[in-house]
Amino acid sequence: MKRIIALICCAALAGALAGCGGGAGNGTQAPSPRGGLKPSEYQDSDFDTSGDIIIKTEYEVYGSDVPEISYTIANNTAAELTYGVEYAVEVSKDGTWYQVPFPENMAWIMIGVILKPHAVNSGSFKLSDLDYRFADGSYRLIKKIGDKRYFAEFRIGPSAITAETPFGYQPLEKLPEDYSSEAAAANGDVVFSLKGTWNTEKLAAFVDKAALGMPAMLRLVRFTIEGDPIILDCVYNENHSGYYLFKHDNSRDKFGADPGITQTIYSYLITDGAGLYLSNCAGWEMTKIYIGAATARIPWPSDAADISGPVQAVERMTEKRLGGNLARYKVYSPGGGKSVSLSEEKLSYGYERPGRGEIQSLANPDGSVTQIRDIVWLDDASFVLICDTSSNLKYFSAVGAAGKSGFGTDYKITNGVFEIVK
Fold first, then answer.
1. Angle between helices 308-324 and 202-212 (to 10 degrees)
2. Measured distance CA(74)–CA(417) in Å, rounded
3. Which has the least CB within 10 A, 8, 26, 32, 231?
4. What is the DSSP string of 320-371?
5. End residue of a domain, out of 123, 156, 189
6. Cβ proximity of 348 and 362 under 8 Å
7. Which stretch is the leader sequence (predicted)?
């Protein structure tokens, strides 16, 4: 995993967040005129192709409207290396490589990224950050790592990877009513049915990407005894959201209750040592502490493929998370744009909003409040902290809500107003 060390700040554009900015981007301007591109500055001999360092884009082919391309950098050596966020993209025309331009007012944020020995880092770049409309063709991403340069080739053309389907999966609403196990298997879904099990290796690939912080998606399809599909989507870090979006679709289950598609945001992927769960708790032990610590188990039949590898990978993720972050319980707002987190400091909480984060201390009016035990969002702008006290009552602290904080046994919402039940 990568560790970033700040070196120097250039005179970058205000508000630049991803290394460069100011590009008009894909679909916003005409292509560069033919012959207007500068030839590549590099010869084949300028690149290290020994295999010591391997850069690879997530997919080989992307649709022309895809907004972003993710990649990995694998260090197959015993040396620790440093590289920056800078990169270049080139396009091949008639067998010759040409530079894809950046906007004239672009500036890099100069930071160093650590690539540890025998480790893998991930990165991404937005096509809109380049001053070019990406047409079908062959391209390459160029990165300087240490004192050498490396590249990864990719293509733009007909592909399942598009703006609408960034992971190659069709939206749930567009799947056919009679979605069969054969069709699901052919689409790359993990399938559990009476007819067989397919694509179980996709779980390990999903966990590996999540461990790197790469956006990723896992689709599982189970079939009822009547043969109806129940589809589960787990989407991690789409648009760099940082959370897991879990969708449950039982709309095709003819004998199920409350058919439809529901979705829930979870903060973490954790394990009890045997299975994998989505949770707002940063680790399994936290599920015993916080009263709203609901989890969603990623279903995996006992007779399916062994998942000890993914379980061990999630254990490593959890160990690193708990060692490098104070949050032990984190709940996102319904829209996913804000979050509130709890730490081992029992009477404080973290509140994160776009571009702003802060630690707040809980008001303890009579000194009887002992610990914040849960977070309940009322809407995208307000939430309630549910707290234990030294008495039999709970303390409810309303933040941004239409209502008053106080002691009681429960709470309710009446006409949009938060009320405490005495």
1. 10
2. 53
3. 8
4. HHHHH---SEEEE-TTSS-EEEE-SSTTEEEEEETTEEEEEEPP-TTS-EEE
5. 156
6. yes
7. 1-18
Q: How far apart are CA 159 and CA 64, in angstroms?
A: 9
Pairing state of beta strands 216-223 and 190-193? Answer: parallel
Enumerate the β-bridge partners of residue 249. 231, 261
Shared domain check, 392 and 316: no
Question: Taking a C-beta distance cutoff of 8 angstroms, is the pair 329, 373 a contact?
Answer: no
As given in the structure block, the two tokens for residue 134 are 């990406």
CA dist 88 and 250 (Å) reads: 45
Structural domain that includes position 196: 172-325
Whole-number CA gyration radius for the chain: 25
The phi, psi pair for 285, rounded to 5°, reads: -60, -30
Residues 205 and 246 in one domain: yes
List b or e across 9-22, with b for residues whose CB sees 16 or more CB atoms inside 10 angstroms: eeebeeebeebbbb
- Measured CA to CA, the distance from residue 181 to residue 192 in angstroms comes to 8
Collapsing DSSP to helix, strand or coil, 267 comes out as coil
pTM of the complete model: 0.89
Amino acid (1-letter code) at residue 385: L
Number of other residues whose CB lies within 10 A of the CB of residue 411: 19
CA distance linking residue 34 with residue 258, whole number of Å: 57
CB neighbour class for 168 (10 Å; exposed up to 12, middle 13-18, buried from 19): middle
Using CA atoms, how far apart are residues 266 and 276, in angstroms rounded to an integer? 13
Of 205, 239, 246, 313, the closest CA to residue 70 belongs to 239
